[in-house]
Amino acid sequence: xxxxxxxxxxxxxxxxxxxxxxxxxxxxxxxxxxxxxxxxxxxxxxxxxxxxxxxxxxxxxxxxxxxxxxxxxxxxxxxxxxxxxxxxxxxxxxxxxxxxxxxxxxxxxxxxxxxxxxxxxxxxxxxxxxxxxxxxxxxxxxxxxxxxxxxxxxxxxxxxxxxxxxxxxxxxxxxxxxxxxxxxxxxxxxxxxxxxxxxxxxxxxxxxxxxxxxxxxxxxxxxxxxxxxxxxxxxxxxx
Length: 239
What we know:
- The chain is α/β, with parallel strands linked by helices and about 240 residues long.
- The protein has 2 domains: about 70 residues, no CATH class; about 110 residues, Zincin-like, CATH 3.30.2010.10.
- The protein contains 6 helices and 11 strands.
- The strands form 3 sheets. It has a 4-stranded mixed beta sheet, covered by helices on one side.
- Strand 7 and strand 8 form a beta hairpin.
- Helix 4 crosses helix 6.
- The longest helix is centred in the middle third of the chain and has 30 residues.
- The chain is elongated and about 80 Å long.
């Protein structure tokens, strides 16, 4: 394992060379913008240099792609000073190193008391568990409100579960009469949460996204389009 440098239009670019028992030379760029070249043990260094220099334009282009990705990548860590959303409001996280584990909202702050280090996976799990408990409490009341509002459509009161999902705000299992709500909804305002709950309640009546589905949804949430747009574009904190 050794480090080498080549020049592209006068710009020095460093890469890590690793020799392995392989047949072909390979090149990769990591999310940390590190260039690694894997080459056969017996390949001459001049051949490796020629390979890297031939790939110079590709390397520079893809380094720029990775840099843009990193600039736009959400900050997923939990630490003091981090901005976080809860029920539609923005707060600043404060982490206090203690041998107890508790989290509370105090004014403009979310205070986390934890034995874990900031930016660690453990403190993030602690925070997500707290969010889930808050979500279960809040969603239970809103699900009951939605049922009272929509029960004349002939639906039964569904069970609900909270999961941290990446691509959906919610889902509906008509057979089991159960809806799943995304944990991330607890970061949004109540109107946004209610829009998703009523969306899933509508699926208890109509399984697809047909014209009839949206007529029924609009009956109970007339402004669902603008509310959904707000939900899809706001309240992102990366956690």
